[in-house]
Amino acid sequence: SRLVVVTGAASGIGAAVRRLLEERGDRVVGVDLAGTEVTADLATPEGRAAAVAGVLEASGGVVDGVVTCAGLSGASPALPHVNFSGSTDLVLGLRDALAASEAPRVVLVGSISATRPVDAALVEALLAGDVAAATAATKAALADGRPQQLYPSSKAALAQWARRTAVAPGWADAGIALNVVAPGVVLSPMTAALVEDPRMKQVMDAAVPMPLHGYSAPEDVARMIGFLVAAGTTHVTGQVLYVDGGAEATLRDPAH
Ligand code: NAI
Questions:
Q1: Can you give the pTM of this predicted structure?
Q2: Any keyword Acetylation (predicted)?
Q3: Could you give the CA distance from residue 146 to residue 119 in angstroms, rounded to a whole number?
């Protein structure tokens, strides 16, 4: 059976991915702050190194899939570190273990919000792997009253990183497929308070229009992740796949 690492496996989309993979016979090694096989804080470089070490120990050095669902929303100073580096450092740290698999697949969870205005300095710092600069840009965004830019910046950087990395030496040429699944609004603990507040709900519905079936369940996103992480999905890489009820198509600049 295949061994798949799932971050954020204790809640929401990550928990739904775990259920789907285990039902089809895959072995899941979960990574989260609590309640998973590997306990680690993906907000810090030390925590990310500990997560990689824990996964390598639990897997014996061969990893067939990595799915990064751990993430934060809101105005937390840890947000860009968890959402971007918590995914990218884990995937980089597990590259050799992925390359040892016969059909390695990586799926990062992005967001429709990556299409919203970003903080260019923060995106650049994240892509450069410059933790100090990313921390400084995050502090500046919070101090300047731009907390709403943190989340789209982290997810836009993640999508850019995925496109570059997927076709960089050592990835596609090693048989590793790497894609992003970008949900619209998913009903999970992350959004529970937002959808219950009529004013927040109105803002969110304007920002993320979902004409096809409205808000999704974690399972709806998990099915796309399960498809991309499967051994039989051989030729998809470097893509951002929106599971967003038509939000991206609605918001997209018609000239592109
Ligand atoms: P959730 O809040 O239910 O689950 C997130 C998980 O990440 C939790 O188990 C949490 O403990 C873990 N986590 C947070 N910080 C961590 C840290 N420092 N170290 C280790 N684990 C940590 O949220 P949900 O909705 O399942 O979100 C999963 C992913 O989907 C996130 O990346 C989120 O940004 C993304 N997403 C969610 C959407 C939504 O509407 N819920 C929409 C678009 C993207």
A1: 0.98
A2: no
A3: 9
Q: What is the pLDDT along the chain (256 residues), one digit of tens a residue?
A: 999 999 999 999 999 999 999 999 999 999 999 999 999 999 999 999 999 999 999 999 999 999 999 999 999 999 999 999 999 999 999 999 999 999 999 999 999 998 888 999 999 999 999 999 999 999 999 999 999 999 999 999 999 999 999 999 999 999 999 999 999 999 999 999 999 999 999 999 999 999 999 999 999 999 999 999 999 999 999 999 999 999 999 999 888 7
The answer to whether 242 is a known catalytic residue is no
In angstroms, the CA 134 to CA 247 distance is 29
**CB neighbours of residue 67 within 10 Å:** 29
Residue range(s) defining the domain that contains residue 169: 3-186+218-243
Prediction ipTM score = 0.99
Pocket of ligand 1, beta carbon within 6 A = 8, 10-14, 32-33, 41-43, 69-73, 82-83, 109, 111, 183, 185-186, 188-191, 218
Q: Whose CA is nearest to atom 21 of ligand 1?
A: 32
* Residue minimizing CA distance to atom 13 of ligand 1: 70
- Describe the strand order of the beta sheet including 65-68 as a list of residue ranges: 38-39, 27-32, 3-7, 65-68, 105-109, 177-183, 240-243
* Closest atom of ligand 1 to CA, residue 7: 21
For the chain, what is the domain count?
1
For residue 33, being part of any structural domain is answered with yes
Candidate list 40, 81, 151, 242, residue with the active-site label: 151
Is 208 inside a domain boundary?
A: no
Query: Residue 30 maps to which CATH number?
Result: 3.40.50.720
- The residue whose C-alpha atom lies closest to atom 2 belonging to ligand 1 is 190
Identify whether 212 is part of a domain: no
